Amino acid sequence: MRYFSLIGYSKNAVLIDPEGSEFGPFTVYKEKLIDNKIVSIGTLHDYLGHVARFVEYIYVASLIGLEPSKQSLDVLIRSYESYLLHGELSSNKIARDIAILTGRIETCSPSSLQVIEAALIHFLNLSDSLAKATGKDGLFSRFMPNAVIQISPQESAKLRGSSIFGGVIRGG
Description:
Layout: E1 5-7, E2 14-16, H1 24-35, H2 41-63, H3 70-86, H4 93-102, H5 113-134, H6 153-162, H7 166-169
Antiparallel strand pairs: 1-2
């Protein structure tokens, strides 16, 4: 990671943003995982790493001109799998450009995608839940609109079938 820094391990982990400040949404996510005893310490460490990489990915996308919107977030999530699996060697231009900027040379195996997806879905769901509970923007609001678009079960199945992260955007 080049723009954000993940410091500490598991319960002591802190995500530092490019301005040198603690990234609050990450801390809230970590505390919810700990308070609710959702995952083990090792899994907590893994989940926090996955979320930190995703936050940096979204941040760097804004640096290359993909301003946060429903449309760009949809494209980014569809490109994220290629970013994870192929890094700088991705055939997807967006994934490759972001990987070059973040220095993502090491890639993950396809078997890791389910764990990564679980961490991200939990993070995005927490953001949406807190936004609804407080009547404010979500934790990730500068990157993800909180509006959930209702879709049919057939559309949801099609999205899940076409991309590992595709259903995340539309709540599928």
